[in-house]
Amino acid sequence: MKEHKGTYLRFSFIIFGILGLVALAGAVLPPPIPCEVYGSISINGHDAPPGTVINASIDNQSRGSITTTQAGIFGGTGIFVARLTVRGIDGDDGKTIAFSINDILANETVVFHGGTTYHQNLTARIPGPNPTAHFTVNRSIGLAPVTILFTDTSNCVNTMSRLWAFGNGNTSALENPAYTYRKAGNYTALLTVTNSTGTNTTVPGQNITFYPKGDFNHNWEVDIGDVTLVAYMVVGRAPVILPDADFNDNGFVDIGDAAKIAWFKVGKVKEL
Ligand SMILES: [Ca+2]
Ligand SMILES: [Ca+2]
Description:
Bound molecules: calcium ion
Distance between the termini: 136 Å
Helix content: 10-25%
């Protein structure tokens, strides 16, 4: 019995020993072979500067990172070039690697397969403030026809497109257009600017008012008041001489202009 007991004990030790080794082996199974990633790197379409930190993660857990030393590139194909090493853990094979660029999630991913070297360019976009459309005009009131200079003063980084609406159905895509209003009227000019962050339109817009030619008192018609005013200019009794009263384009307000507006008022001439 003793002999049997000793055999049994030795056998048990062997069995438990094997089980222990198996358990130990399981505990120290080598992790998957790392994979490596290299490529170009850009933020908002521009080369990311040196010092940019790229982090690789699987299941929201970091698996490795690299800090760039050149603009727009991380790693390369050379033997001694440092690449982004992604050290997976058991079970990572086939999972998605997400990348962050200075903590901004990159647009691209790759699938983890140990031992693979990936050429994967990375891009990220840091959202900026939404654009704010704004513009100025060199004048917004007067007598038609008149050419207005519009100047885009929007707060809009890297404007991709702009659309001017002059309030009469006409538009322009120029940066700073000059537009001639030929007919008297009230107009509301709008500017819409767009960049990668969004689009914005001036609200409520720029009111532009041009009265009919010769309507110096701004009541939307050439009346006796306007005729009288020009006559006063001619005789030097008006407070100011208005260049717009030079209807015959001879460089000053003279009796010819007074006569022309008077004839226009009574319908003897069709336009000023
Ligand atoms: Ca008038
Ligand atoms: Ca004149």
